[in-house]
Amino acid sequence: xxxxxxxIERFVQPTVGKLGSAGEPFMTAMLRRELAVYFPIVxxxxxxxxxxxxxxxxxxxxxGYLTGGGPxxxxxxxxxxxxxxxxxxxxxxxxxxxxxxxxxxxxxxxGPTPELETQAATARAGLRRTxxxxxxxxxxxxxxxxxxxxx
Length: 151
Hints:
Layout: H1 2-19, H2 23-32, H3 35-57, H4 62-67, H5 71-110, H6 114-147
Helix pairs in contact: 1-2, 1-6, 2-5, 3-5, 5-6
């Protein structure tokens, strides 16, 4: 999950923004390569494995482990941040990416119109906003996962 947010936030979106209208076909091509399917699957597997590992580490008592202080609390905070980042991706990144792809395809076939350009700009803004939130949450998760054993 973290790599996806970092990759999109730091490389893809700025590049597409600098390319202007030429960036739209690039985004459309990326989405056609099933990028929108790949990321949710990998992210979902990561979340499920993380929950299983938390269950194992908590000896079957995740609520007690979360509220007991120490590593369990820090791991729990990191896990919650990771799940929220996953949800942000599903709620914000995927729908905005699909809206941007549809607007881009429509502009490629019929030419840009003010309505399509507005739809694309709105989708890009939503992508930027959601990616930043996801990246922040992933940062919290990484810090918690890296430091929990030392608490």
